[in-house]
């Protein structure tokens, strides 16, 4: 039993997409689709050349936020979406009927259709791949050149994530809507 | 005329091989006890699913990051970073992750191929290794017989890679003097400029720098380890200020504290103005200058008398005088923990060599040399080298293109540039070949891991050169555009299928690393060492017979001793008699336990067990802080004189400015209605080498033309519209990306796309090839190819 969380030192992100490739290689993500488990969010730069806003081009690495109060779980009619014992929001592809309610409900746009299994897919913290092998890091964390991500158990007071949450200012995405994400961004 | 012949005559010195003479040297060291390695030390480990993780080194780009390859049931299923390597610091970029796709690319070269259609038609027939080696033997013997044993009738050229040296050994023993490599297409000017000024091409201690000027080096996209990993954890108010200078707003600009768009090719004026400020305001490190500068007074006088003021530079560069003053002052304030980042890669403009010199001198003025937080020389863990004697072929002519006293421009064999470097001037050589200005016929080429069709300006000329050669032999893993013009293709296995020469990586935290074979070569591919071993066994004796026919020295020597004895000196295959594993073992024999550690962990450095520690799941200590080699000679430059060289009188004799000087011709200008084309790297692609990688193509499947949004609007060009880009040497088409991130007179697209090889089924005709447009303008000092002086027209299709 654990309460898995991820901390994102997002200011380190250089948008190289190593995380995206590592995720695809590790988890066998379908190629050719626009949507996949993780991505780096970018925005159109503000300003007119040569007066451009550097902060407007900040990179926001993102993925399923593993909400403790997940709208996708709430709306799933077949309980294909569920919380596992470690607080990870999981999908049972067998139960999924592709009604896509979860895709609409997710405030983070974290879900997409895998056309091979004909089910909705999303990040599962490498539960069935790396964690199942006994590894302690997700593929995206391990590979990151600038070490954006830190994964761990926030239930364990001695874990690195617990330590960072105690010592560094952080925020969650769309905090006001009550989803209680387990992804924390360091200010 | 009687000449006394001695067999010693044939031995023109020796070639460093990194191999041992006898196997008795092996096995002499007792394997070190590694049981005290920390629990988190990585290496060959069994995975919980019955697989195995094998430590090796990446070769998707130049960096050589350490990785662990997971193998399950004989299949490589995942590449993860190997945290043990101080250079790559527990990271693997998108390309490194996608290396599996290079191994399992359905389009990779699988079998030896012999051309069966017109040259360039892409038609080949499959041959066995025995057949292809026999074929090559006949062709090479015929050419050398016709050319009376002029071994220089063959050109040898290579791209960067850990086995480049193995291929070069083959070239040296073959006896040609025509060698070309990637240097003049890449970092020749920067390496040489720092070399002649500071005595070495230094490392940047970005981990400790507090102020960094980065110009012409896009480290968030053109990833260099450890630089990219260290810098971007610290910028934007988190420990280091990054001043980034680039005509484009890149991902590095997005991570910078200040972005200054500069007019392309005018960086020299910017650096000269910075220098003017610190000299005029006497902000430089007086003690360092007094101790270590040679000809400082001359440089001071040079800078001041030319009035390289910030106001002067403002007009040229487009960067305000106020900002130039601020940057100069801030740099000196933070010095010696301040770095003007040397950069790497291509030559941008004709002033490139002088630009890099000016950068090195500016850095030295701060005293930030061989010191923590500045530019450092680092330490090296030397490897044992074994040498093999290389014979002299009396009939072999000297290098076809050279700067010779009596040869004037336009005459046979003339060279455009002032200084000939080891790697030569690629486009100079190619252009002389096409102009028919070779002093003798060069009829064949061996091309290893190199793609001249796409990797250098004016693709059409490279194609023409390959077409004119009687025998082009390409050794590669992929059917590149260059391979399409081959007569014979020899399939090399990928980096995950071979053990390569062990390499020592210098730096503040030096280490040795080894690429270990992860899986057996697929299909009929082989490591280049085996390819050359087999080929040299096939051709060595028949080629000696050609030598015997034309070489009077050899004939006399045979009379004196015996043919067998003389042949021993001419036997090419002797360079490859040991396996790579044996060679590596000998190279590191002096370090106790090193070879075993390299095989099981991929990385070795002395006292690794004590020094290596996990800090957290992401970060590791390699050397304790007080054991890092930030300073190896107390700031003293590594030049022969022990001084920073302001003035290069010997180069002046070759017509090169003795001190960095601005010339009016360097100014940026674009005729009305045209644009300056600039090119560059991308975090998800390594030149044309990754163009067919399915995983990377999933991130970006074609390149786009960056064009200023306002300009595009006027031209009615919208995102995704196809545009035709045309210049003096060619034209191409690609899609448009109107953006504010580039200036009005400049357009950009990323290098490495637009392959015309139909055998690359994914990359074929996706996007555009920049070198179809870039003019072959030669940099005057080292003959490098200038990448950013081509103007183009844009037309909506």
The spatial strand order of the largest sheet of chain A comes to: 10-1-12-11
Average pLDDT confidence of chain A is 97
Through-space gap between termini of chain B: 71 Å
Structural class of chain A: alpha+beta
Per DSSP E runs of 2 or more residues, the count of β-strands of chain B stands at: 32
Choose one word for the global shape of chain A: globular
Give the C-level CATH assignment of chain A: Alpha Beta
Q: Can you tell me about this structure?
A:
The complex is a heterodimer of chains A (187) and B (797). Chain A has 187 residues and is an alpha+beta fold. Chain A has one domain (4-186): 2-Layer Sandwich (Alpha-Beta Plaits). Helices cover 20% and strands 20% of the residues of chain A. Chain A contains six helices and twelve strands. Chain A has helices spanning 18-27, 71-75, 101-105, 127-131, 139-143, 160-167, and strands at 4-8, 39-41, 47-48, 51-52, 60-62, 81-83, 89-91, 112-114, 119-121, 149-153, 170-171, 183-186. Chain B is of the alpha/beta class and 797 residues long. At the A-B interface, helix 1, strand 3, helix 5 and strand 10 of A face strand 5, helix 1, helix 7 and helix 24 of B.
A few lines on this structure:
With 187 residues, chain A is an alpha+beta fold. Chain A is built from six helices and twelve strands.
Keywords:
heterodimer; A: 187 residues; alpha+beta; Alpha-Beta Plaits; two-stranded antiparallel ribbon; 12 strands; 20% strand; B: 797 residues; alpha/beta; N-terminal domain of TfIIb; Dimethylsulfoxide Reductase, domain 2; Barwin-like endoglucanases; seven-stranded mixed sheet; six-stranded mixed sheet; 25 helices; 32 strands; globular; disordered N terminus
């Amino acid at each position: 039993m654990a309460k898995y969380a991820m901390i994102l030192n997002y200011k380190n992100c250089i948008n190289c997409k190593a995380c995206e490739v590592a995720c695809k290689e590790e988890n066998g993500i379908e190629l050719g689709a626009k949507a996949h488990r993780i991505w780096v969010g970018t925005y159109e730069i503000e300003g007119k050349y040569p007066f451009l806003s550097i902060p407007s081009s900040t990179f926001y690495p993102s993925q399923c936020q593993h909400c403790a109060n997940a709208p996708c779980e709430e709306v799933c009619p077949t309980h294909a979406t569920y919380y596992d014992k470690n607080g990870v929001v999981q999908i049972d592809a067998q139960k999924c009927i592709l009604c896509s309610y979860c895709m609409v409900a997710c405030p983070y746009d974290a879900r997409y259709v895998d056309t091979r299994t004909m089910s909705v897919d999303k990040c599962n913290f490498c539960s069935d791949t790396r964690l199942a092998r006994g590894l302690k890091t997700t593929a995206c964390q391990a590979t990151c050149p600038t070490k954006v991500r830190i994964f761990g158990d926030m239930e364990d007071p001695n874990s690195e994530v617990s330590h960072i949450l105690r010592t560094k200012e952080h925020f969650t995405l769309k905090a006001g809507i009550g989803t209680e994400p387990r992804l924390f961004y360091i200010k | 005329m009687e000449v006394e012949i001695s067999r010693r005559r044939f031995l023109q010195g020796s070639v460093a091989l990194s191999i041992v003479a006898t196997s008795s040297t092996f096995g002499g060291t007792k394997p070190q006890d590694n049981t005290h390695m920390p629990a988190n030390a990585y290496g060959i480990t069994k995975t919980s699913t019955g697989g195995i993780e094998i430590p090796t080194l990446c070769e998707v780009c130049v960096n050589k990051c350490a990785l662990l390859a997971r193998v399950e049931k004989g299949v490589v299923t995942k590449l993860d970073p190997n945290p043990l390597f101080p250079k790559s610091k527990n990271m693997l970029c998108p390309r490194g992750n996608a290396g599996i796709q290079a191994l399992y690319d359905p389009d990779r070269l699988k079998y030896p191929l012999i051309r069966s259609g017109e040259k360039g038609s892409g038609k080949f027939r499959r041959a066995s290794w025995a057949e292809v080696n026999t074929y090559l033997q006949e062709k090479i013997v015929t050419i050398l017989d016709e050319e009376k044993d002029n071994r220089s009738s063959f050109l040898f050229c290579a791209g960067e890679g850990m086995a480049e040296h193995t291929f070069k050994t083959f070239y040296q023993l073959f006896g040609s003097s025509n060698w070309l490599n990637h240097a003049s297409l890449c970092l020749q000017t920067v390496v040489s400029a720092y070399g002649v000024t500071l005595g070495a091409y230094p490392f940047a201690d970005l981990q400790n720098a507090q102020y960094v000027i980065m110009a012409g080096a896009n480290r968030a996209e053109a990833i260099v380890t450890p630089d990219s990993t260290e810098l971007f954890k610290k910028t934007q108010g988190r420990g280091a200020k990054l001043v980034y200078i680039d005509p484009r707003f890149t991902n590095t600009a997005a991570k910078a504290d200040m972005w200054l768009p500069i007019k392309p090719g005018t960086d020299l004026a910017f650096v000269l103005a910075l220098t003017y400020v610190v000299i005029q305001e006497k902000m430089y490190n007086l003690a360092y200058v007094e101790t270590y500068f040679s000809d400082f007074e001359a440089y001071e006088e040079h800078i001041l008398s030319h009035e390289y003021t910030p106001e002067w530079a403002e007009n040229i560069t487009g960067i305000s005088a106020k900002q130039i003053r601020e940057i100069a002052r801030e740099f000196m304030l933070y010095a010696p923990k301040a770095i003007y980042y040397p950069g790497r890669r291509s030559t941008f403009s004709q002033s490139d060599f002088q630009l890099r010199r000016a950068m090195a001198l500016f850095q030295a003025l701060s005293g930030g040399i061989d010191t923590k937080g500045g530019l450092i020389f680092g330490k090296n863990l030397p490897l044992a080298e074994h040498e093999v004697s290389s014979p002299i072929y009396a009939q072999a002519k000297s290098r076809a293109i050279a700067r010779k006293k009596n040869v004037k421009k336009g005459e046979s064999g003339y060279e455009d540039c002032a200084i000939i470097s080891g790697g030569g001037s690629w486009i100079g050589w190619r252009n002389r070949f096409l102009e028919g200005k070779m002093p003798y016929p060069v009829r064949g080429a061996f091309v290893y891991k190199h793609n001249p069709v796409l990797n250098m300006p004016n693709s059409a000329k490279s194609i023409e050169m390959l077409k004119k050669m009687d025998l082009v032999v390409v050794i590669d893993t992929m059917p590149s555009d260059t391979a399409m013009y081959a007569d014979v293709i020899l399939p090399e296995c990928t980096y995950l299928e071979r053990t390569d020469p062990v390499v020592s990586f210098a730096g503040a935290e030096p280490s040795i690393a080894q690429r270990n074979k992860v899986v057996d070569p697929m299909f009929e591919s082989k490591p280049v060492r085996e390819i050359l071993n087999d080929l040299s066994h096939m051709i060595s004796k028949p080629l000696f017979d050609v030598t015997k026919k034309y070489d009077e020295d050899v004939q006399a020597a045979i009379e004196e001793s015996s043919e067998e004895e003389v042949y021993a000196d001419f036997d090419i295959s002797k360079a490859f008699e040991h396996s790579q594993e044996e060679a590596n073992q000998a190279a590191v024999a002096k370090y106790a336990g090193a070879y075993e550690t390299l095989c099981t962990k991929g990385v070795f450095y002395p006292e690794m067990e004590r020094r290596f520690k996990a800090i957290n799941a992401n970060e590791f200590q390699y050397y304790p802080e007080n054991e890092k080699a930030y300073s190896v000679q107390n700031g003293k430059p590594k030049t022969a004189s022990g001084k920073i060289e302001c003035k290069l009188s010997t180069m002046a004799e070759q017509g090169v400015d003795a001190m960095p000087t601005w010339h009016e011709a360097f100014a940026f200008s674009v005729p009305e209605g045209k644009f300056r084309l600039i090119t560059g790297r991308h975090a998800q692609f390594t030149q044309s080498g990754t163009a067919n990688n399915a995983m990377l193509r999933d991130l970006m499947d074609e390149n786009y033309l960056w064009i200023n949004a306002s300009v595009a609007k006027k031209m009615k060009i919208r995102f995704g519209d196809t545009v035709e880009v045309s210049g003096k040497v060619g034209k191409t088409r690609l899609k448009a990306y109107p953006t504010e991130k580039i200036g009005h007179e400049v357009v950009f697209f990323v290098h490495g796309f637009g392959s015309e090889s139909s055998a690359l089924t994914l990359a074929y005709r996706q996007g555009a090839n920049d070198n179809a447009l870039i003019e072959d303008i030669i940099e005057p000092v080292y003959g490098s190819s200038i990448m950013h002086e081509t103007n183009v027209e844009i037309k909506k299709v």
